[in-house]
Amino acid sequence: MTSSSDRSPAVVDPKGTYEVRTYGCQMNVHDSERLSGLLEDAGYVRAPEGSDGDADVVVFNTCAVRENADNKLYGNLGRLAPMKTKRPGMQIAVGGCLAQKDRDTIVKKAPWVDVVFGTHNIGKLPVLLERARVQEEAQIEIAESLEAFPSTLPTRRESAYAAWVSISVGCNNTCTFCIVPALRGKEEDRRPGDILAEVEALVAEGVSEITLLGQNVNAYGSDLGDREAFSKLLRACGQIEGLERVRFTSPHPKDFTDDVIAAMAETPNVMPQLHMPLQSGSDPVLRAMRRSYRQERFLGIIEKVRAAIPHAAISTDIIVGFPGETEEDFQQTMHVVREARFASAFTFQYSKRPGTPAAEMDGQIPKEVVQDRYMRLVALQEEISWEENKKQVGRTLEVMVAEGEGRKDGATARLSGRAPDNRLVHFTKPDEEVRPGDVVTVEITYAAPHHLLAEGPTTAVRRTRAGDAWEKRNAAPAQPQGVMLGIPTLGVPAPLPAATSGCAID
Questions:
Q1: 282 upstream amide cis, omega within 30 of 0
Q2: Is 178 annotated as a binding residue?
């Protein structure tokens, strides 16, 4: 295992600065941490925040699941073209799902791009950049199968106290709205021992929260021949001393079995939180989506989770306006939302995704109809989210202090963090020093639809090894003459699947 922070620090002469721009789901975010680690291993230094393309190497890690994903990419590439003309040594690389899909098209449309690489060979980026520089021509290399599991590559993690741990890549499902399996390939599982070794190494570095990551995370074990491998993995994480919080994303209802629910309920550091993508509450629409569960099965899972973990916060993904969706189908989705009482939902208006079966289906819904249904769904979910959050008022919660979660914290003299169930909590800044990664105990006094407030005094502050790790990283001196390999920037992985992508919508 070779996370960059495992190795002995070594100062190297910098080749220049780099910037990585990430679009899409958590898998892309995690891949970008690896790309940053690879570039730093090769001697590049991260460009300052806000450099906006003013770097020697600019990497686009792309998503292909949105209808306008390519327009967004080419627009951004177009804005860099004049900058590259003024800086002959500048290099531009495009990777990720859109690169895997479009391949040669990218260089034809944007001939100033130097490197195009796919989802299976992110480890080749430094070599391809050097080859493009020496040969003075674009390098296009798209592997058809995984060359190295992402978590075996160097990394520049975005947080000192929370980390992604990829347990599988690829997906064996054939959802008609999703192109990810075609771009990421069939599911490949990591060996349990490798995963646990990475988790233990992260904890030794000060990480106290990990999120197990996979395109279809609870299908883990299908490649290993063990249907209970995921629940066993959760229980094994519970045995790792110093690991305080375990989360996972994104599961699929068809693979969500009773042994997983039991493992969640019986493993103290597995958090009472579940993100369970619904997509639609209508059985005919689910059938057209090729989602291998139906409304009754989905609600049955929710009921079992709530019985085993009464305080669990359950969130979801929903697509409105899928081809052929009738008003009756939409009302079935509204029914499930009322019954499930999600803490939050990522709601999407269906848009054609090139390369998916759904894009060619009859019965495409007019935009105005989709918009109307979307607004009604959002209004209902906002009402439910607020009602569910109001139930938290008066509860005393342990909140892990986060960084960058509260945009108004400076003006309000508050700090922000996440409760065990992943709800966002803003709390009054205590008199004593509190660092990201530390844990505070607060009483909830007010609820809004998307956050909770603790306006009274903090009743306890627990300084943690994770806070120590954050403090150590934050105190690290700048490296103007080189780069100290493995010194990451600050931040925390997004706690839920990104709302801008379908990659994690399984």
A1: no
A2: yes
Helix, strand, coil percentages, rounded to 5, for the chain: 35, 20, 45
Q: Is 319 helix (H, G, I), strand (E, B) or coil?
A: strand
Q: Tokens at residue 399, please?
A: 């909140």
- The span from the CA of 53 to the CA of 147, in Å, is 29
Tally of CB atoms within 10 A around 277:
25
Cα–Cα distances in angstroms (integers) from residue 80 to residues 17, 32, 87, 110, 351, in the given order: 15, 20, 10, 10, 28
End-to-end CA, the chain: 28
Between CA 185 and CA 325 the distance in angstroms is 29
Q: What is the 3-state secondary structure (H, E, C) of 116-138?
A: EECCCCHHHHHHHHHHHHHHCCC
Q: How many CB atoms lie within 10 A of CB 204?
A: 12
Backbone angles phi, psi at 327, to 5 degrees: -60, -35
Is the model's pLDDT at 500 over the cut of 50?
no
DSSP 8-state assignment for residue 490:
-
In the structure, what pLDDT confidence band is assigned to residue 14 with cuts at 50, 70 and 90? low
Q: Determine whether the annotation assigns residue 25 to a binding site.
A: yes
d(CA 284, CA 279): 12
Radius of gyration in angstroms for the set of CA atoms belonging to the chain, rounded to a whole number: 23
> Per-residue pLDDT tens for 198-239?
999 999 999 999 999 988 999 999 889 999 999 999 999 999
Q: Is 241 helix (H, G, I), strand (E, B) or coil?
A: coil
Query: Is residue 175 marked as binding?
Result: yes
What does residue 4 show for φ and ψ, rounded to 5 degrees?
Answer: -60, -30
Model pTM score:
0.81
Backbone angles phi, psi at 221, to 5 degrees: 110, -20
Bridge partners for 327 per DSSP:
none
3-class state of residue 140 by DSSP: strand
CB neighbours of 305 closer than 8 A, spacing ≥ 6?
261, 264, 274, 312, 314
Pairing of strands 44-46, 16-22: parallel
Is 237 part of any known ligand binding site?
no
Question: Of 176, 149, 334, 171, whose CA–CA distance to 251 is shortest?
Answer: 171
Spatial neighbors of 130 by CB under 8 A, at least 6 apart, are none
Distances (CA, A) of 91 to 12, 97, 452, 483: 20, 20, 45, 19
**Per the structure block, which two tokens stand in for 349?**
């208006």
Cα–Cα distance measured from residue 482 to residue 473, given in angstroms and rounded to the nearest whole number: 17
Q: Is 503 annotated as a binding residue?
A: no
Please list the residues that pair with 58 across neighbouring strands.
19, 92
What amino acid occupies position 27? M
C-alpha distance from residue 414 to each of 59, 315, 386, 459 (Å): 35, 26, 21, 15
